[in-house]
Amino acid sequence: MNLSSWFHRSGSRNSKKNKRPERQHSIESDQNQQKQDEEEELLGVTQELIDHIKTFALETFKNFPLQDNEGANSSSETQTSSNVRKELSDWQERHALLVLSKVKELSQLRFKLCPRHLKEENFWMIYFTLVKSHVAEYELHAIQLAKLKKIAMTNENTSDTNAYEVEMAERNQAASLTPSTP
What DSSP line would sit under 18-76, residue for residue? Predict the structure, then answer.
């Protein structure tokens, strides 16, 4: 066996071995992309919404008519680690985080506006008012899913309790039927 044939065979073996991890990595990458796409769809972050958000300007937020209820919430403001206010629902918070990461223009607007011109809660109130026509159906769908999950969990817990009650009744009945030894 000469040296060139050995290199040729080892090279072909290594290239075959290396193709499998690439294929595996490609499959995992595709699955991650699919999960990300599903989450974006669940949260209503569509290309149409992104295009709509890109039309927002500083004046859009500065000139937006707000009801004056700032004093009521100023002392009870809480934030998550990413500075999205906790006054938002879970769905709105997840939507806000995703849209901030996907639409840099919105992130820049928020940076310029908060807190100098607007409070964070007002920024998000205005944002969700402006995009209401684009995200309302997605938020409603998320609320419905959450209710269904809660009902399913309640039913599951109830059926577990019923199983324990049946088991206890059977055990008690069996214990009462066994003859006692004197």
Answer: HHHHHHHHHHHHHHHHHHHHHHHHHTT--HHHHHHHTT--HHHHHTS---S-HHHHSTT
Token pair belonging to 155: 């039913």
The answer to whether the beta carbons of residues 117 and 61 sit under 8 Å apart is: yes
Q: Is 83:120 a contact under the CB 8 Å cutoff? A: yes
Angle in degrees, 0-180, between the axes of helices 90-102 and 120-130, rounded to the nearest 10: 90
| Residue carrying structure tokens 């004093």 | 71
pLDDT, tens digit, 9 for 90 and up, residues 133-149: 999 999 999 889 888 98
Q: Is the full-model pTM beyond 0.90?
A: no
Structural contact between residues 73 and 121, judged by C-beta atoms closer than 8 angstroms: yes
- The angle at the Cα of 74, spanning 71 to 78, to the nearest 5 degrees, equals 155
